[in-house]
Write a structure and sequence with these properties.
about 140 residues; mainly beta; Porin; 8-stranded antiparallel β-barrel; 8 strands; about 60% strand
């Protein structure tokens, strides 16, 4: 399992194009329970960002893609946001739904993000979205 997590980490990092305003985040909660939850968000405009999440755990694998609209951002894609997500976890099914959250950015570009959401799977079940991540914001110099 550790080899798979390491491989996924390197694959995820290599697929990212770090420029302009990109954030790389990890969930400390998932790490405590033996999983790995990685996230990368790319700013599209000061009020809109695209976020890709990968979750690898002992009991399943998942991925989400979400679009987030930020209300009144101070430093571009920060503070309160709402959005939609699509994706799922192997044991829960694939679907989509709505999300809401808040993101804090420190003066040293450390990111803390918390969010939640709910949606439906394509087979009629209910799926959730949860995020508690720490990370770093890369900015173009």
């Amino acid at each position: 399992m550790k080899k798979i997590l390491i491989l996924l980490t390197f694959l995820f990092a290599s697929l990212l194009r770090v420029n302009a305003q990109t954030e790389l985040k990890v969930s400390p909660v998932a790490l405590l329970f033996g999983g790995l939850a990685l996230s990368a968000e790319q700013q599209i405009s000061p009020s809109f960002g695209l976020d890709a999440d990968i979750l690898a755990a002992v009991d399943g694998f998942g991925a989400n893609l979400s679009g987030k609209y930020y209300f009144d951002p101070k430093v571009g894609t920060d503070r309160f946001h709402i959005g939609i997500f699509a994706g799922g976890i192997t044991y829960n099914g694939v679907g989509g739904g709505f999300l809401a959250g808040y993101k804090w950015i420190s003066t040293k570009r450390i990111v803390f993000e918390a969010g939640t959401g709910i949606g439906r799977t394509f087979d009629g079940g209910i799926t959730g979205y949860g995020k508690l991540h720490l990370g770093y914001r890369f900015v173009k110099k």
